[in-house]
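Repro:
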Amino acid sequence: MSRSVLVTGGNRGIGLAIARAFADAGDKVAITYRSGEPPAGFLAVKCDITDPEQVEQAYKEIEEKQGAVEVLVANAGVTRDQLLLRMSEEDFTSVVETNLTGTFRVVKRASKGMLRARKGRVVLISSVVGLLGSAGQANYAASKAGLVGFARSLARELGSRNITVNVVAPGFVDTDMTAVLSDEQRAGIVANVPLGRYAQPEEIAASVRFLASDEAAYITGAVVPVDGGLGMGH
């Protein structure tokens, strides 16, 4: 069955790989993006998830063109790395506003249709950093750790309506965001990863697609690390 899927921040990197994975499985896939030219092959909706009105308009367009969202992947996120004493209020609040509050907005809006349908799949994209911590990323780590508590609360709240809410926590992934690191930085990161390499975006996408599948119908409130062993024990 072809489902209506929404992937926020689905125009590049991990989000694009997730969108492609669902499309390859035959689902109807909408993506949100903030800037640039979106990739072809999806219902692309321009939307800044920090703006409640844009979120509402995006959902209306998606519902009109491919039906109520049955699978939501909340992937959109930003970083503004800085050591704590140099981190401005805006550095902190803007990251939390996008990564945590923005996720609250898109999940709340999707849950309305899911509650009516008495079924749904929600997958939040967190990070190993939210579990492990990372110097210079207190804002990002706090926002990504917050997703875990948010997801587990919703898993309890929505479970009786056959709606599952899970978290995928990627480690270091080979994307444009990590491509800017120097060879020395990349080698330092890989040295701490038991599998000794970066993840490919498709490996994250495979876990997300599984959690949205019928096979994962009895999994909710879970945090699935896809990090090569980097964060094990957390």
